[in-house]
């Protein structure tokens, strides 16, 4: 996987995971596949950052995990959003939107007084 | 709650480390598998798919480490490391650890034990539904001062109909009765209860049914019995409901069994029967009238009402009743309402809380000792810590490490203490000799365990924080160079202050114990007004089973005479007499107002409230109550003549101050009586209460059910117990005997609660003294060791052993002196709280203060001299070579 994407992911990985889990409970591999798919193959989540992130979010009480049988009839650890996680998603999302709006303004700046 | 989830996650991480790791591995393996499957789906060969998956995953070990770190294991592992380190340090110093654990176990154990007792008696709710709503009701007679009087059935019905502040109320009257047919005849306490009694308390029956309206209306002989009676006397027979029991020789149908938690009106009550069964012979005119105040009452407050409001309302209602029925109610124009809890707990709450404070002080003394030990040990560890600081350990880190050690110690000590408290509670309750209420509710519950835990944490911080901070802020450079001196001086001041504090606390506690002891001795040697030597008391309630109501009075007179006659014939009996209710025993005692009659008396003038007792002529002689003037009661009453009475000196003085009372008349229930003799005053109501005026009637005029036989023996009074029981059994095999007890024991029993609290104070005062002595000894022994070199130099320069002794002991005695001064000041300010517990001694009794200070001073001197003497034996050469 290309390393140049990991910088972008660092700050926003948790937001992406929260968003992904808001759709349905998923196991780790599923999360990384889904993010890849939803970002139209632009974002690749490395396992080295995904699993520690999942553990951190669990410790903060945003997500919960349980062992379940997967669609391939195997056992997988499924993560799901808690109520606190849902609140966190809303908070991070509005933060992200504000930040990206601001970045766009900066990039769209053509000079001169407003 | 998020922090809670996080904490749970961390604790899980710590305790289920292996499982968490296995889970993580399984999860990562699963990820690889899925990736491989996905790769296969995209057309790779299985081998290639697997290889690519592994490559894309990256270093699996690194991922695992990162996940572990995210789990927060590091912080907790560090902490677990601190705990392990602390445990190792404690193991390395078994002497220190043993002393510290013993101190903590004793201190926390004493506190947990006292708290268990306070929790059971004062804090736990009563075992009834919404117990805070329950109150006791009394009718009050402001004129006579009888504020907690009984109430008649008629008045109670009026209260029930009109009082809005009460949701429900019920009356009851307890009488001792005799149960036969199950082994030896048994005296049991029975309560006539009005309809709804159990509903007011919110107490459902455990078996069968409560008393129903028909039981009352049809005057059915139906009985609800106690759990204790059912289990202990009726053998726990499951078919008990529907069976019958013999009470006073009459069969009663057992309709229900109450749970053990129902303890009203008294914990001893065994039988509850309908109030409509009250026997006509209990009253002057057959059935009870409005003037017959024989009921106690319990009530449940309405929502929003409190005892104060209920009292106002009932007082207003009583006032109206007094206006409407002046004949029976004129003086009973007020009411009193007391929360049930207050009434049950009584006056022990203050004493218990004081003792709880005392054990708290003991723990503080223990903390001072431990802080001292830690400070001393800290000096020894100074270099170890200096090395760690020099190597870059932060001060916070070191404080945390040292505090962890204290906390580990405190929690170990706390655990031992709670174990110890279980045994302590048993001991304390055994010492209390049944003088504490609600001991059934004393147990080791979650609240006690929580208290122990909290106490351990607080203790650990208290004795650990200051030493930890001091050690962490030591100067590493200085310590690494092996320096001495300055640290010692400052540390010495701190240790000195701790010694002063614990001596002050010990002085306070020893003075408290001294005051209690003096008070108890005063109480024990009080002149009760009678001579208790070689007197045996035999208490009973005469058995009336099978006696027709119209013959009961005659029967009681004859039965009393018969028992007295037979007992007087026993060998070894010098004198014998009988009284209805024995002094110092409360149940059944009553007082009445007596006014002057005959010439010189004005109608409506106030009389004297006198304790009223019914006796045979032998009673006063047997008891050694002196006849001061006039003559004793006669053995027979002349028909038609005035009933003769004896009066105590104080009663006569109040009625006829400065006049001759002999031959004077007083108004009594049945007309007038003539005073034929004046006798000495007796402490009827309690050894700690002043003698009350008393009137003695001949038992012939109003035969009572209750009887206490008093017998003066030629030798050991207990030797007479068996023959007297035999005589009574011969007279009536169904006659139970409540107790046979030497009069000395009756007196001891009446002050058992004082004895108990005095004992507690003595034990805890002694503990405080020992702990303080250990503290003084420890500090001085340490100081001597520190100054061995200096002492050696001084001796080498010509100091005599006496000078060394003075120097070292002087330091110790100065500290003790300051502590004694502070402690005495504190005692002067604080012993006031003991005032209500003291008899015959003021809270600032100079003699007690002096004795306590002298005693503590002697102990302190001893604790000082042992290490000081060791200092004088220092061999200069050895001391100088130490360096």
Low-confidence stretches of chain A: 1-7
State the total count of DSSP E strands of chain A.
3
> What average pLDDT do the residues of chain A reach?
81
Task: Summarize the main sheet of chain A.
Answer: 3 strands, antiparallel
Described by its quaternary structure, the protein is heterodimer
What is the molecular shape of chain A? elongated
Q: Count the helices of chain B. How many?
A: 28
Order of strands side by side in the largest beta sheet of chain A?
1-3-2
Alpha carbon gyration radius of chain A = 16 Å
Count of DSSP helices of chain A? 4
| Residue fraction in strands of chain B | 15-25%
Provide the structure class of chain B.
Answer: alpha+beta
Q: Quick one: which chains have the greatest interface?
A: A-B, 27 and 31 residues
User: How many DSSP E strands of chain B?
Assistant: 22
What is the residue-averaged pLDDT of chain B? 87
Uncertain regions spanning at least 5 consecutive residues of chain B: none
End-to-end separation of chain A in angstroms reads 42 Å
* Alpha-carbon Rg of chain B, integer: 38 Å
N-to-C series of helices and strands of chain A:
HEHHEEH
What is the 3D form of chain B?
globular
Side-by-side strand order of the widest sheet of chain B: 3-4-9-6-8-7
């Amino acid at each position: 996987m290309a390393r140049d994407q990991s910088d972008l992911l660092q700050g926003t990985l948790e937001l992406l995971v929260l968003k992904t889990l808001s759709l349905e409970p998923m196991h780790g591999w599923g999360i990384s596949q889904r993010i890849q798919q939803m970002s139209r193959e632009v974002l690749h989540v490395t396992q080295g950052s995904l699993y520690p992130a999942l553990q951190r979010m669990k410790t903060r009480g945003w997500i919960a995990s349980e062992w379940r049988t997967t669609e391939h009839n195997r056992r997988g650890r499924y993560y799901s959003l808690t109520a606190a996680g849902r609140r966190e998603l809303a908070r991070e999302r509005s933060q992200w939107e504000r930040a990206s709006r601001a970045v766009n303004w900066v990039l769209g700046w053509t000079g001169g007084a407003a | 709650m998020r922090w809670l989830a996080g904490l749970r996650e961390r604790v899980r991480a710590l305790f289920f480390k292996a499982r968490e790791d296995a889970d993580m591995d399984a999860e990562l393996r699963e990820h690889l598998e899925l990736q491989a499957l996905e790769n296969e789906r995209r057309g790779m060969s299985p081998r290639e798919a697997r290889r690519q998956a592994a490559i894309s995953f990256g270093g699996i070990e690194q991922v695992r480490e990162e996940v572990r770190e995210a789990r927060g294991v590091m912080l907790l592992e560090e902490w677990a490391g601190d705990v392990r380190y602390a445990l190792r340090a404690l193991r390395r110093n078994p002497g220190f650890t043993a002393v510290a654990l013993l101190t903590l176990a004793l201190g926390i154990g004493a506190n947990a034990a006292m708290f268990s007792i306070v929790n059971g008696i004062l804090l736990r709710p009563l075992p009834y539904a919404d117990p805070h709503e329950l109150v006791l009701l009394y009718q009050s007679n402001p004129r006579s001062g009888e504020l907690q009087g009984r109430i008649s059935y008629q008045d109670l019905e009026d209260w029930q109909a009109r009082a809005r502040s009460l949701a429900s109320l019920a009356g009851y009257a307890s009488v001792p009765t005799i149960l036969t047919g199950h082994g030896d005849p048994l005296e049991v306490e029975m309560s006539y209860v009005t309809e709804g009694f159990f509903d007011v308390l919110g107490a459902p029956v455990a078996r069968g049914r409560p008393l129903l309206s028909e039981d009352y209306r049809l005057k059915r002989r139906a009985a609800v019995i106690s759990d204790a009676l059912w289990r202990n006397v009726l053998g726990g027979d499951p078919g008990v409901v529907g069976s019958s029991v013999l009470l006073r020789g009459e069969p009663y149908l057992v309709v229900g069994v109450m749970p053990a938690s129902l303890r009203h009106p008294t914990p001893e009550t065994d039988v509850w029967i309908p109030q409509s069964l009250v026997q006509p012979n209990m009253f002057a005119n057959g059935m009870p009238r409005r003037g017959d105040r024989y009921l106690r009452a319990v009530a449940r407050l309405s929502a929003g009402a409190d005892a104060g409001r209920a009292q106002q309302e009932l007082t207003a209602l009583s006032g109206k009743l007094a206006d409407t029925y002046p004949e029976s109610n004129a003086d009973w124009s007020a009411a009193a309402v007391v929360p049930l809890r207050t009434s049950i707990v009584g006056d022990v709450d203050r004493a218990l809380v004081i003792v709880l404070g005392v054990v708290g002080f003991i723990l503080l003394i223990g903390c001072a000792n431990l802080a001292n030990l830690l400070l001393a040990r800290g000096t020894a560890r100074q270099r170890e810590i200096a090395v760690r600081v020099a190597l870059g350990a932060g001060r916070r880190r070191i404080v945390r490490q040292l505090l962890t050690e204290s906390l580990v110690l405190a929690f170990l000590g706390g655990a031992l203490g709670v174990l110890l408290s279980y045994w302590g509670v048993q001991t304390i309750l055994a010492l209390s000799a049944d003088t504490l209420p609600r001991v059934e509710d004393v147990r080791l519950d979650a609240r006690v365990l929580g208290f122990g835990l909290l106490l351990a944490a607080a203790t650990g911080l208290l004795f650990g924080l200051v030493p930890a901070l001091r050690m962490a802020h030591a100067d590493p450079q200085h310590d690494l160079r092996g320096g001495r001196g300055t640290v010692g001086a400052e540390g010495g001041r701190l240790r000195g202050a701790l010694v002063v504090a614990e001596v002050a606390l010990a002085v306070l506690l020893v003075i408290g114990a001294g005051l209690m002891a003096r008070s108890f001795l005063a109480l024990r040697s009080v002149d009760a007004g009678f001579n208790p030597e070689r007197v045996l008391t035999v208490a009973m309630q005469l058995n009336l089973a099978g006696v027709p109501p119209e013959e009961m009075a005659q029967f009681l007179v004859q039965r009393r005479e018969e028992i007295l006659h037979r007992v007087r014939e026993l060998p070894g009996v010098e004198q014998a007499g009988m009284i209805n209710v024995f002094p110092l025993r409360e149940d059944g005692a009553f007082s009445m107002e007596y006014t002057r009659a005959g010439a010189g008396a004005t109608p409506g003038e106030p009389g004297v409230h006198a304790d009223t007792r019914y006796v045979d002529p032998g009673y006063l002689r047997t008891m050694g109550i002196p006849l001061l003037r006039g003559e004793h009661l006669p053995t027979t009453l002349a028909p038609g003549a005035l009933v003769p009475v004896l009066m105590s000196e104080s009663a006569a003085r109040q009625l006829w101050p400065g006049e001759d009372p002999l031959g004077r008349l007083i108004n009594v229930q049945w007309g007038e009586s003539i005073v034929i003799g004046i006798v000495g005053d007796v402490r009827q109501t309690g050894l700690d209460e002043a003698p009350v005026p008393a009137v003695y009637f001949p038992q012939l005029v109003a035969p009572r059910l209750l009887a206490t036989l008093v017998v003066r023996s030629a030798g050991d009074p207990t030797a007479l117990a068996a023959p007297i029981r035999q005589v009574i059994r011969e007279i009536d095999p169904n006659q139970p005997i409540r107790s046979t007890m030497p009069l000395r024991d009756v007196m001891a029993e009446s002050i058992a609660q004082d004895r108990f609290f005095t004992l507690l104070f003595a034990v805890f005062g002694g503990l405080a003294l020992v702990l303080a002595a250990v503290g003084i000894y420890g500090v001085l022994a340490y100081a001597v060791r520190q100054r061995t070199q200096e002492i050696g130099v001084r001796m080498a320069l010509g100091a005599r052993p006496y000078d060394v002794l003075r120097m070292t002991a002087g330091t110790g005695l100065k500290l003790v002196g300051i502590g004694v001064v502070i402690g005495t000041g504190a005692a002067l300010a604080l012993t006031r709280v003991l005032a209500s517990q003291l008899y015959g001694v003021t809270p600032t009794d100079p003699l007690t203060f002096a004795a306590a200070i002298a005693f503590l001073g002697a102990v302190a001197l001893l604790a000082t001299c042992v290490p000081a003497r060791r200092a004088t034996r220092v061999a200069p050469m050895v001391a100088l070579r130490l360096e």
